[in-house]
Amino acid sequence: MSRSDRDSLLLKGLALNEKDAIHFIYKENFSLVQTLIIRNNGTEDDARDVFQEALLVLYEKSQTDDFELTCQIRTYLYSVARRIWLKKLQYLKRFESPDEDLVETVSIEEDLEAHEKRTAQYGVMKAAMGRLGEPCKSLLEAFYVHQKSMVEISAYFGYTNADNAKTQKYKCLMRLKKLFFAEYKPQ
């Protein structure tokens, strides 16, 4: 099972408040957040609190019909936890040099705008992939989604060698790029 399929199942389990899904998400991701918090002037208790807040954000998002996770659960929880922790540090005035550290924080409006822009780009990319056709669509998915090697791809698609598969992948990418930019209107 691919990581994205597993994350989809876990997100559905989280939305249904399944204890196994919640336990698995906690087990797989807490240590990452704990490391972040401890390395940035926090304690284990702080890490537990921040992780629970981040998990609650993901839970609430999973309850909405229009929420689509466009990254791994791990990435989402880390970025939410990081934002929560930076805001707590700002509140507690623990920054040694606020000017340097504040450069890394982004206002919510800017972040939401960037997220909405990225979501729109994903929508255009999904549509472009739908129009791409075979075998390009399957070839690009094999390489980028399923992370198959060029040797595996050449064997599966019947290319004579990995170099020919690589050439075909490049042609498919150029075709996808044309389809994408025909629809995408940068703001």
Structural class by sheet pairing and helices: mainly alpha
Q: Characterize the biggest β-sheet.
A: none
Helix content: over 70%
Instruction: Note the gap between the termini.
Output: 37 Å
What is this structure's SSE topology?
Layout: H1 3-15, H2 19-39, H3 44-62, H4 73-92, H5 98-102, H6 108-132, H7 136-145, H8 150-157, H9 162-183
Helix pairs in contact: 1-2, 1-3, 2-3, 2-4, 3-4, 6-9, 7-9, 8-9
Textual characterization of the structure:
The protein folds into two domains: 1-105; 106-187, Arc Repressor Mutant, subunit A, CATH 1.10.10. Helix 1 (3-15) packs across helix 3 (44-62) and helix 7 crosses helix 9 (162-183). It is 76% helix and 0% strand. The chain is elongated and about 60 Å long. The protein has 187 residues and is mainly α. The chain has helices at 3-15, 19-39, 44-62, 73-92, 98-102, 108-132, 136-145, 150-157, 162-183.
Features:
187 residues; Arc Repressor Mutant, subunit A; mainly alpha
